[in-house]
Design goal:
The structure holds 4 protein chains of 4 kinds. Chain A contains 13 helices and 2 strands. By secondary structure, chain A is mostly helical. Chain A has 2 domains: 74 residues, no CATH class; 219 residues, MetI-like fold (Orthogonal Bundle), CATH 1.10.3720.10. Chain B has a single domain, classed as MetI-like (MetI-like fold, Orthogonal Bundle), CATH 1.10.3720. Chain B is built from 13 helices and no strands. The radius of gyration of chain B is 22 Å and the shape is elongated. The N and C termini of chain C lie far apart (83 Å). The chains are: A mainly alpha, B mainly alpha, C alpha+beta, D alpha/beta. At the A-C interface, α2, α3, α5, α8 and α10 of A face α1, β10, α12 and α13 of C.
Chain lengths: 320, 281, 526, 553
């Protein structure tokens, strides 16, 4: 069990990194803001105006302090590129990443658990072997490569799925049709993510199952005359679940970074794609904001998982 | 507990495949310059050529031979993978054993930090740093290693703690052995299988991350790597060139990761006594 | 009595979820819905970046596509079509040389989108307002003052004679409604519906930053008549997917990479080619030995085969650079610009003339090997590699590294480099020459050691006579090519593809002050 | 109701159970006893059809062949008509479900579909097994080991099974609780048949009508529990009982030599058996009914090694040995107890043929001993009362010990020396050159006695007659020599005829005691019985004397 201090340290580390990095760079921040093409068209007075507006002439430590203060007030800074608060940009993108990561996390964890239980139940059987081989093979594919394959195959070549984005813009759809449209766009990116990450929860469940099945309570459950399925899921599966749940937090962290790549491939308007755009536009405030939000979300998710773990395992719940 | 990783690996098809594949890649990486008739960076006016006898995998958008790039990419991937994993493993071994043996405040503080790093998604930090610093290969390796030792240190510490309680170490202590002596003579040798596994997974992680960063386009662009090739090829995926430009590095990358996973999985199975098969009466 | 817990909801839930998920998948897969066919005409434009900011003058991003999205709503006094300046809000104009002022006759039937009448007051207000709040694309100091002489007449006094006044000022400055903006003190933060009330043919119906989409509706009271296209959409599609989207009919227009052009043409799409207004340059640190020598710079020009460079790095999809910077396709191009045809022998001669001797493939001077540092951003990696190869073949050792673009900018600005590769656009109107040759901007050559050149650059800006000005510009190109403070390497071909339902065209000298995008609002009106 | 026919269970090559035949009638209880690894748990689990290995043979439960039933049908039986209660260990109960749920689950699966009702019934059951009400919603880890065991028993009893299999059911309970739980089990499951597997003989004795002794996957002895436990007939059973600490015997715990090895040919016990013969190495003995007991032994159980019939010796008017009939069984220690002059030594000498009997016969393994050749003395050896006397002062230790080998002409010189050294080590003497060249008068009393023991043992006899071997030694040496003898018996499977006047010593080392008075055996029987309930007044007197003596010291 990690405790709160762990999370505080992690949080402080991320904050410090966020502040230190930009300071280490040479160059004129204005250039990063508007890019070289636009700067050609700019007049010197406009430049001066902009420098003043973004307080870019202040010493770095003052920007640093201001950033901290702003952070406390929920202000993640101002995107020079988007010309709007970073927090609002990030919040606009967040739901899509949540949708994508959430869907993939739920599907991959659930199916990973089910497949892991089935596989671990009869270790060494043909079913186990074929599951193990195929899932290991699939998880060997980097998420972005899987995404590219799916995109080229299903969208470009067979034209079954849309080429990019999260919805068909201005299609005039509503209600169920809109939901289907969203799912239609979600399908490939979510599949790529799911396939990349199903292996981890599968393997963990399977290995835990193997261990759990050696416990005498499994024999006991069988001796009660319970049907196979009940023994497999209620007795073995329920116990095998615990380590998988602990892993979910870490898995979420991995998946968020996976989503970053997948979103880029599918131009899915989530935080990952925003990161990519920010990288291209050298919009460091957005980059920092996104990474801060993502890192903090992962921290929070881990923290929640830690909490829920104690709810799930009575041995921990009553330990103190 | 005596484990013979050699034997475990020899009995697993997965692991044998992994080792075979890695050896193959290693040979290709080492002898790459002898194998390729082209410099991977040399531009020619023959862009987007389809695979032919001269260019087995065709050429890319600036007329570079894709096969040569693929072969040089193996160098990058393996170099990053092995060096990073080596550094991270050494770090984790040092920190893991020292905290286990020293205990006390040192242990507490270091483990807190380790825990904190475990929950931080490393690639996010790396992207942020890489976005600012545009690291070259060496810096990237250092960066990956610095963010990659924490999990290993935890495992090793746990293992070292249990080893520490074992009889032969108490015996050595009772003869007045120093911590260093105990680490090198007793604990490290017993940790070899775990270190090996940490190393293997470290390789996988590093290969994966290097490819990911290159794919994002925030790695050193002068270094040929599979991720970079895919990054470049993706911009041209409206052409048919992806078949021999995008797929081969992707497959090579996947095979590398897969083979490393195979070895790791087998080792893990061998290391965890609970996972080993045994008939129980 | 303790409660008995219900057994394992997990498994049962799973058995419900899984089939449900399967059904959903099938639905999603067979769902081919791409929106219902609508009666009104709709036009969709693909864009790989998507978001270019809220399309008000003060919130659109400062790149061309941002201006384009704004220009559908806000109009200028004059505008351009594919061949000439055309009336916009002003139906006629006159230059009064004595006062150095322009008088603009305005249309009297123009209304703002909120129904208010458009008058000369709005124009005068706009130019006053930009004094406090400069519009990012226009140098507000060029207009001394603006005066509404009557309801539909406005007089603009220039602070100095300025040749590209139409191009850079009145053809670029969007006119904003006084009745709204007079109360706006922080225009950069003004993003409500009022901020997008203009006089243009389209009104903004929706803007989504995260999806990078814009939806415009035709303004039915537009003074030139209701636009032909009822609905205009900008959607985000990644660069590599735009060709597929065009082929699949998901979008009507979009910019496409050169390699796919012939394939798209075969698929029945119309291809339009942009004028060559963008160039990649070899930046040379002429402040520093040995690059401060003109002969040395000329040797570099002889050593680089720009035709070959285009073939290799641009796969032929570019024009080789002219040392005079203005592209050969431009009206301003000086036909006798010195070309420095590829001639490595000549390059060696020149270097030997500078007391360099060739030893073991590379030149040395006083026992020291000649080595130059070449830096470039990653996007110029291939070009940099090519330049390195060619210069090394000519005996000049090159240490080439790619750096983060921002770092390159910083090093160039601090003169902390030998050679660098850089690019910029705007090669329509010769005023750009002043900006990129003598001004202190970071991608300018900042070359002020040739007095004649500097004077010529100033003179062409204020020469209001077109023929006289052309003469000056020709001289500039000749001297520039002779001195070579920087060397233009190539002008890339840019293409747009569209389905022909609207006849898109490239605006003369680019939209406004030179945007090379074929989305002139007039194309959608007629 | 339950019948096992040629039940075989194997994991791969390894056979865990090897041809088990058993029958259990309604209401009968059977204890299966064996050391760990004998296959007890496998047997229990195979009755539930819960073993992973391959199972052959037949398990008939009320006529149903369990092995051929489909999975659903067997599930219908499990936990319902046949229930199993394992020994409580870590995680026998599922850690993530409450104990009430775990009991109720069994009920809902089979009898009551209504959860509420089942919960109620489970609560009643838990209460009756002594779990406090406030613990019902507890998770297993919150209970003590004893409570967990009770929960396990409650689960097994949940559906009033017809057959209850208890796998080491109560070893984790403390003694008072055991008795209570056994009572409870019997009460809760009236008319139920039990199979109890245990290594705990007293549990078996209390719970079961019959016992089956399991060795290496085979039943070696089967009979009524009282009989088998008091008079084991298979060498293994005897060994097992010898190992078992018990309040009533005084004899030191003794093991069985070697360890269980399933892979041997023939009778799997033969490497550890003291009476193994050629056939034992080759053929597997079937379980046969021999004199009212099922025994699997080629030799028909423990054989008499040496017996006398009507053996008498008259010295003039004195009838020193009067029609003595004793039997020394293979591997056992028979203590011959009596006052000096009771004829003990005479009897020993008669057996050794040092004096001729007046009347009667001596049999060595059923064959009449008439002419004692070298062959006899290789099998029967004796240690004399006074080691000083029995060792020639002219011979060195080496020569002394080698003497018998020389006489028997065993092996070459080198071989003999090697055997000498080996046996000296066995009796815990040094085998150094220096010691080998010592002469008896340089040795201490204890050393001398060890030399005599070594000399007797070097021939590897099967019966060792020890005539007051410790009488001349002080008490600390006594203890050492006695321990040595017991150790040698365990290792070599020696039979011992231990002659002593001290019943306390006899009690310490013997399986059986024969009491001799005036040349007659007045009483003989299991040591436990002779000590705890002596039948003859003389025996009582001897015990009394021993007790008094110890008090006076």
């Amino acid at each position: 069990m990690r405790n709160v201090i762990t999370y505080v340290i992690a949080f402080l580390f991320i904050l410090t990194l966020n502040f230190l990095l930009p300071r280490m760079l040479p160059g004129d921040p204005l250039m990063a803001i508007y890019g070289n093409e636009a700067l050609i068209a700019m007049t010197p007075e406009l430049k001066a105006h902009l420098v003043e507006r973004f307080a870019l002439d202040q010493p770095l430590w003052q920007q640093f302090g201001a950033y901290l203060l702003a952070l406390v007030q929920g202000d993640l800074g101002h995107s020079y590129y988007y010309n709007s608060p970073v927090s609002s940009i990030v919040l606009g993108r967040l739901p899509w990443t949540l949708l994508l990561v959430g869907t993939a996390l739920i599907i991959s964890t659930l199916s990973g658990i089910v497949l892991g239980i089935e596989s671990g139940w009869r270790r060494g059987s043909r079913r186990d072997k074929s599951l193990l081989t195929s899932l290991m093979a699939v998880s060997g594919f980097p998420d972005f490569f899987l995404g590219i394959l799916l995109l080229i195959g299903f969208s470009v070549t067979w034209k079954i799925f849309p080429l990019s984005g999260a919805i068909t813009p201005y299609s005039g759809l509503s209600g169920a049709a809109l939901v289907l449209d969203v799912l239609h766009h979600l399908f490939l990116p979510a599949t790529a993510l799911t396939l990349s990450y199903i292996g981890a929860s599968y393997l963990l469940t399977r290995n835990t199952m193997v261990t759990v099945l050696k416990n005498p309570y499994i024999l006991m459950a069988k001796a009660k005359g319970l049907p196979d399925r009940v023994v497999r899921y209620q007795h073995a599966g329920r116990n095998a679940l615990l380590p998988v749940i602990t892993q979910t937090g870490i898995q979420l962290g991995r998946m968020v970074t996976g989503a970053l790549f997948v979103e880029i491939v599918f131009a899915y308007p989530g935080l990952g794609y925003l990161t990519y755009e920010a990288l291209l536009a050298r919009d460091y405030p957005v980059l920092q904001g996104v990474l801060l939000i993502v890192a903090v979300s992962v921290l929070i998710a881990n923290f929640l998982v830690d909490l829920s773990y104690s709810k799930l395992d009575p041995r921990i719940r009553y330990a103190h | 507990m005596h484990i013979n990783p050699k034997q475990e690996i020899r009995h697993s098809k997965f692991a044998m495949f992994g080792i075979g594949m890695l050896l193959f890649l290693l040979i290709i990486a080492i002898f790459g310059p002898l194998l390729t008739p082209y410099q991977p960076n040399s531009q020619t006016p023959f862009a987007f050529e389809s695979p032919s006898f001269n260019h087995w995998l065709g050429t890319n958008h600036v007329g570079q031979d894709i096969l040569s790039q693929l072969i040089y990419g193996a160098r990058t991937s393996l170099l990053v993978g092995f060096l990073t994993a080596l550094l991270a493993t050494i770090l984790s071994a040092i920190i893991g054993t020292s905290t286990a043996l020293a205990g006390g405040l040192y242990d507490k503080i270091v483990m807190r930090i380790v825990d904190a790093f475990i929950v931080i998604p490393a690639i996010i930090v790396i992207i942020l740093v890489a976005a600012y610093l545009k690291p070259n290969l060496l810096v990237l390796i250092l960066l990956l290693a610095l963010l990659g030792w924490q999990g290993g240190a935890r495992t090793i510490r746990a293992q070292a703690l249990s080893l520490k309680e074992m009889g032969h170490i108490s015996a050595a202590r009772s003869f007045g052995a120093s911590n260093l002596y105990i680490i090198f003579r007793h604990i490290l040798p017993d940790l070899v299988p775990i270190l090996l596994m940490g190393f293997i997974y470290g390789v996988r992680r590093a290969v994966f991350m290097e490819a990911g960063l290159a794919f994002l386009g925030i790695a050193d662009p002068t270094t040929v790597s599979w991720g970079m090739m895919m990054h470049e090829a993706l911009d041209f995926c409206y052409l048919n060139v992806w078949r021999w430009w995008l797929i081969p590095p992707g497959v090579a990358l996947s095979l590398t990761i897969l083979s490393v996973t195979g070895i790791g999985h087998t080792l893990e199975g061998a290391l965890d006594p609970r996972l080993r098969r045994e008939a129980n009466a | 009595m303790p409660q008995l817990k219900t057994r394992m909801p997990f498994r049962k839930t799973l058995f419900i979820i899984l089939p449900l998920a399967l059904v959903c998948c099938l639905l999603v897969i067979f769902y081919g819905g791409r929106g219902q066919p609508s009666e009104s005409t709709s036009y969709t434009i693909a864009d790989s970046m998507g978001d270019w900011g809220y399309p008000s003058p003060y919130t659109h991003y400062s790149r061309g596509p941002g201006y384009v999205r704004m220009s559908l709503i806000f109009e200028t006094l004059v505008w351009k079509d594919d061949s000439d300046f055309v009336p916009a809000l002003a139906k006629d104009w006159e230059y009064i040389e004595a006062e150095n002022a322009y008088i603009f006759e305005l249309h009297d039937d123009v209304t703002w989108h909120d129904g208010t009448n458009f008058t000369a007051e709005d124009v005068a207000f706009t130019f006053e307002y930009t004094k406090q709040h400069p519009y990012q694309w226009v140098d507000s100091s060029l207009v001394e003052s603006a005066e509404a002489t009557d309801e539909y007449t406005v007089k603009l006094y220039l602070s100095q004679p300025y040749a590209p006044f139409f191009q850079d000022v009145v053809g670029t400055q969007p006119i904003i409604p006084k009745h709204i903006w007079q109360y706006v003190t922080e225009p950069e933060k003004f993003t409500d519906a009022q901020a997008v009330i203009g006089t243009g043919p389209y009104t903004l119906a929706d803007y989504s930053q995260e999806h990078g989409t814009y939806l415009y509706n035709a303004y039915s009271d537009y003074y030139l008549g209701k636009p032909a296209v009822d609905e205009l959409k900008f959607v985000k599609i990644s660069e590599a997917m735009i060709p597929s989207a065009l082929e699949q009919g998901l979008v009507n227009a979009g910019d496409v990479p050169p390699e796919i052009v012939s394939e798209l043409e075969e698929a029945g799409l119309t291809i339009i080619t942009a004028p060559h207004a963008w160039n990649a340059k070899l930046m040379i640190n002429h402040q520093k030995e040995p690059l401060s020598s003109k002969q040395f710079r000329q040797a570099l020009a002889y050593a680089i085969d720009r035709e070959e460079l285009v073939q290799i790095t641009q796969r032929g999809h570019a024009l080789a650079g002219s040392p005079g910077m203005m592209p050969p396709t431009s009206d301003w191009y000086y036909p006798d610009t010195p070309q420095y045809e590829y001639d490595p022998a000549r390059a060696k001669q020149l270097l030997e003339g500078l007391n360099y001797t060739l030893e073991n493939d590379y030149f040395t001077k006083d026992g020291e090997e000649l080595e130059l540092e070449l830096i470039a951003a990653a996007e110029f990696e291939e070009v940099g590699q090519f330049v390195k190869d060619q210069l090394e073949a000519a005996g000049i050792k090159i240490d080439f590294s790619t750096l983060e673009a921002k770092t390159v900018d910083a090093k160039v600005e601090a003169w902390d480099f030998d050679l660098s590769i850089y690019g910029h656009g705007g090669l329509y109107e010769p005023s750009v020459l002043h900006k990129v040759i003598v001004e202190k901007s970071f991608n300018s050559a900042r070359y002020d050691s040739n007095q004649t050149l500097s004077q010529l650059l100033e003179a062409q800006l204020s020469e209001m006579d077109a023929e006289e000005r052309k003469e000056l510009v020709w001289q500039i190109q000749e001297i520039y090519a002779e001195d070579l403070p920087a060397l233009t390497l190539y002008y890339p071909h840019w293409y747009w593809a569209h389905d022909g339902s609207v006849s898109l065209y490239y605006t003369m000298d680019g939209m406004a002050s030179g945007i090379p995008i074929p989305l002139n609002r007039l194309a959608f009106v007629k | 109701m339950l019948k096992l026919e040629a039940l075989e269970v194997s994991y791969g090559e390894k056979k865990i159970l090897n041809g088990i035949d058993l029958e259990l009638k309604d209401g009968e209880s059977l204890a299966v006893i064996g050391e760990s690894g004998a296959g007890k748990t496998t047997l229990a689990l195979s009755l539930m059809r819960l073993v992973d290995g391959s199972v052959k043979g037949k398990i008939l439960f009320n006529g149903l062949d369990l092995l051929s039933l489909p999975e659903e049908a067997i599930n219908e039986l499990r936990g319902n008509r046949i229930a199993w209660a394992p020994q409580n260990s870590n995680n026998t109960l599922n850690p993530v479900h409450t104990i009430l749920n775990q009991v109720a689950e069994s009920i809902t699966e089979h009898k009551l579909k209504n959860r509420r009702e089942a919960g109620k019934q489970a609560s009643i059951l838990l209460s009756s097994f002594g779990i406090p009400v406030n613990r019902f919603s507890a998770y297993p880890h919150q209970l003590s080991g004893g409570e967990q065991q009770r929960v396990l028993l409650a689960i097994a009893s949940a559906n009033q099974p017809e057959l209850l299999i208890l796998d080491e059911p109560i070893s984790s309970l403390d003694a008072p609780a055991r008795a209570e739980v056994i009572e409870l089990l019997k009460h809760t499951n009236q008319d139920c048949s039990f199979i109890v597997t245990t290594h705990d003989i007293s549990t078996a004795a209390k719970l079961a009508d019959k016992v089956a002794i399991l060795y290496a996957g085979r039943i070696v002895e089967l009979g009524l529990s009282g009989e088998v436990l008091s008079r084991p007939r298979h060498p293994y059973t005897r060994g097992l009982i010898r190992c078992y600490p018990d309040m009533t015997t005084g004899k030191d715990l003794q093991g069985i030599k070697g360890v269980m090895d399933r892979s041997v040919n023939g009778c799997s016990f033969h490497p550890r058996c003291t009476q193994a013969i050629e056939i034992c190495r080759k053929e597997i003995p079937p379980l046969r009914l021999i004199q009212g007991r099922h025994i699997a032994c080629h030799r028909g159980g423990i054989i008499p090694l040496l017996s006398t019939k009507n053996l008498s010796k008259r010295f003039d008017s004195l009838l020193a040995v009067d029609a003595v009939k004793i039997t020394i069984e293979g591997g056992e220690t028979l203590a011959l107890v009596g006052e000096s002059g009771s004829g003990k030594t005479t009897l020993a000498k008669l057996i050794m043929g040092l004096i001729e009997p007046t009347e009667g016969e001596i049999y060595l393994e059923d064959s009449l001993v008439s002419n004692r050749g070298k062959d006899f003395y290789r099998q029967v050896q004796m240690i004399f009362q006074n080691p000083g006397e029995s060792l020639s002062h002219r011979l060195s230790v080496l020569e002394l010990v080698r003497e018998s080998l020389d006489i028997q002409e065993i092996g070459a010189r080198d071989e003999r020396d090697r055997l000498v050294r080996q046996v000296l080590r066995e009796v815990e003497l040094p085998d150094s050159e220096a010691f080998l060249n010592e002469y008896p008068h340089h040795l201490s009393a204890g050393e001398m006695q060890r030399v005599t023991i070594a000399r007797a043992l070097v021939l590897e006899p099967r019966l060792l007659i020890a005539d007051e071997p410790v009488a001349f030694l002080d008490s600390s040496l006594q203890a050492k020599i006695l321990k040595l003898l017991l150790k040698l018996q365990e290792q070599r499977g020696l039979s011992l005829l231990f002659i002593t006047h001290d019943i306390a010593v006899a009690r310490k080392i013997s399986d059986r005691i024969a009491v001799m008075k005036d040349g007659k055996i007045v009483e003989q029987g299991p040591a436990t019985k002779i000590i705890t309930s002596p039948g003859h007044a003389y025996t009582r007197k001897l015990s009394q004397a021993a007790l008094d003596l110890s008090l006076e010291d």
